[in-house]
Amino acid sequence: MLEKVFYGSKKYWLWMITLIIIIGIGTGAFMHQFWDGLGVTGMNRDVTWGFYIAQFTFLVGVAASAVMVVLPYYLHDYKKFSKITILGEFLAIGAVIMCMTFIFVDMGQPTRIMNVFFYPSPKSPMFWDSVSLMGYLILNILISRYSLDAEKKGIAPPKWIKPFIIISIPWAVSIHTVTAFLYSGLAARPFWMSAIMAPRFLATAFAAGPALLIILCLFLKKVSNFDVGKEPVKKLALIATYAMLLNIFFLSLELFTALYSGMSHHIAHFQFLYFGLDGNYTLVPFMWASTILAVIAIIITLVPKWRNTENTLLVGMIAIFLSIWLDKGLGMIVAGFTPNTLGYVVPYWPSVTEFLISLGIFGLGIFIITGLYKIVLTVRRQLKPY
Amino acid sequence: MSVNRRKFLEMTGAVAALGLSTKGLELIAKDSAHGNGNSSAIRWAMVIDLSKFMNNPQLTKKCVDACIKEHNIPKIENENHQIKWIWEEPYTHAFIEQENEKLPNAIKDMPVLLLCNHCDNPPCTDVCPTQATWRRDSDGVVMMDWHRCIGCRYCMAACPYGSRSFNWFDPRPDIDNMHADYPTRKKGVVEKCTFCDERLSRGQIPACVEVSEGAMIFGNLNEPLSPVRRTLANRFSLRRKPELGTHPEIYYIL
Amino acid sequence: MYNSGKVIIGILVFIGIFISPFLLNFGGGQAHTKPDPKIPVQYEKCIEDVEYMKAYHMDMLNEWRDLVVRENQRFMQFEGSKIEMSLSKTCMKCHSSKVDFCDECHNYLDVNPYCWDCHVTPEEVQ
């Protein structure tokens, strides 16, 4: 089925070649970072994780969100998701590969990465994160390959795939829980050390992931006439709405705990994010943008007429996605380090190299997802021309 | 009593699972590379006398320079990329958890030497995915293996004391008077104070302690007559962020 | 054969690329020069014989690395005296020139051990 990526319209080829060029630029930037060292990024002795790890954190959520289509369809026989499940699984594959690549480029000694598997460390959440991401990738490749193959042949998928599908459901929850554990167990970082880290991660995942999936489905309908149907989109939009509401609720819980308790070393991080600290206002506009987008998203998605009309739905989903990206992919990591353990505020902003490498990785992800979606669309078009 | 095949398989499976689970628990509770903090034969600790440093302004630099010289530590211009194994901070930042506006200014600005606390319960060694850093059972030193470190910087995120530094570039161009008695490190690995483990294995005390003119006391906490035990028995002492459960082994006396 | 012109040209290009290392070294390239490591002048006795070292010095150094760094065993007995298991401080006390000794064979075989990214050679001491 992979050969189907090589056949497509002029626009498709232009899209893919543009992505290859972007990936090439990212690779070149990475070679610069590989030879000179991570000092070419904006990270420093105090803000030791930055844009790369933030993107990894955000994308794990997107990857985990595949469970939102897999669970209803496979576990509860929700037939309306029949056309959309594979799209969710392929999105997960692209997202997990991006996650792994972001981790790879963030390492000081990436050639030693196999040490994580040669010297297993059961006490380290990072070890378990590597294991669970690897496992999730393999699960999704296995499940999507065999179910799409069966669909192409017009038969039911093989029986043995069912246990893997069932396992993938708790596994999806686990990959994002383990990622939350990376942060929420660190006594050194009061901003992260919160029991609600994992629930919040899951809520943002189940909002941003379905939002992205809806955006992609609407996009597919526009560029290639492929329609998953109104029902799955309606249901996904409802899921994203509830998840976003939960996310906002959880955020307000965090704000209450920090602000009502009055503990200065907890409040400082929120102050840095929303009002600036010690003359450093870098993230303030982005956090307020995230808040405003969240409000817009909730207003749109709570009104059924707006949630179920495609134009307004698109705006609402983009608002959800961007709001969560600004919060998780820009704010969360840096705020954990600012102020640092000695109370200093050290500014951080990604460098040009860091930005280009990240762009290359996003290009890689979009490339993979485009290719995989192309396969699905071609298979389905050959089965029933649309 | 007769056992049919199914029962036999079930029993074997149950016994195997039990055996594996206890082994699994054992593995998680006690990593092969480091122990649980209670079984050390030696427990190295350090006492830093803050008033001695307050009264002798050149002393902190002397101790820091001794460390830099001993370990080929680079002097990096960019503040954000500095490598600091032992360094000086004012009291208000060193003991940031001790918020006390009414302290005299002399105390607030007092120079405090900070280094790796060689905790009994180090959060950094728990999070390392390759065991490139671990707590030595035999003497409590939190060690570094620069051959194994992948530079993920998780330990730096986990350390509550800011004791760890990362090599953002190749350190060699910034090393003055490089010697062959101690390896340099390379770009992409995390480094920190190792209580001069290379000197400890030769029966010597750490380089900073040696030049500290008595302002730093080093010894074995498990030895009741050691200088650290005797000092701590007679003086009020402070540790950094003790509420975090790390059990740091650097004590500060005033 | 269809497109025989393109195919034959392609095969010739491939052969050219494949044998290029041989062509480049024809008539006295680097691969021709046999490695000539300079045996140290103050050579008394190495801790192992030449044949063992040729075959196992990498494994021995890895073993030393784990013993010193991870097992806290810095010293070993050799002929009644205590020596330190150290590349820079023991091996390179006699084999003091990396360029004249270590690099000779390593360059010939195009091997790039990264020991000296960190371990300081006598030549580099400032």
Structure in words:
The complex is a heterotrimer of chains A (386), B (254) and C (126). Chain A has helices at 10-36, 51-64, 67-76, 85-106, 115-118, 125-153, 161-184, 197-224, 230-261, 264-275, 284-302, 304-307, 310-337, 352-383. Chain A has 386 residues and is mostly helical. The two termini of chain A are 19 Å apart. Chain A is 74% helix and 0% strand. The longest helix of chain A has 32 residues, at 230-261. Chain A has 2 domains: 1-184 and 350-386, Formate dehydrogenase/DMSO reductase fold, CATH 1.20.1630; 219-346, no CATH class. In chain B, the strands form 4 sheets. Chain B has a 4-stranded mixed sheet. A two-stranded antiparallel sheet of chain B has the order 2-3. Chain B is built from 10 helices and 10 strands. Chain B is an alpha+beta fold and 254 residues long. Chain B starts with a helix and ends with a strand. In chain B, a hairpin with a 6-residue loop joins strand 4 and strand 5. The longest helix of chain B is centred in the first third of the chain and has 25 residues, at 5-29. Chain B folds into 2 domains: 1-30; 39-253, Alpha-Beta Plaits, CATH 3.30.70. Residues 29-37 of chain B have low confidence and may be disordered. With 126 residues, chain C is mostly helical. Chain C has one domain. Helix content of chain C is 49%, strand content 6%. Chain C has a two-stranded antiparallel ribbon with strand order 1-2. The mean pLDDT of chain C is 89. The chains are: A mainly alpha (386), B alpha+beta (254), C mainly alpha (126). Chains A and B meet through helix 5 and helix 6 of A and helix 4, helix 6, helix 7 and strand 6 of B.
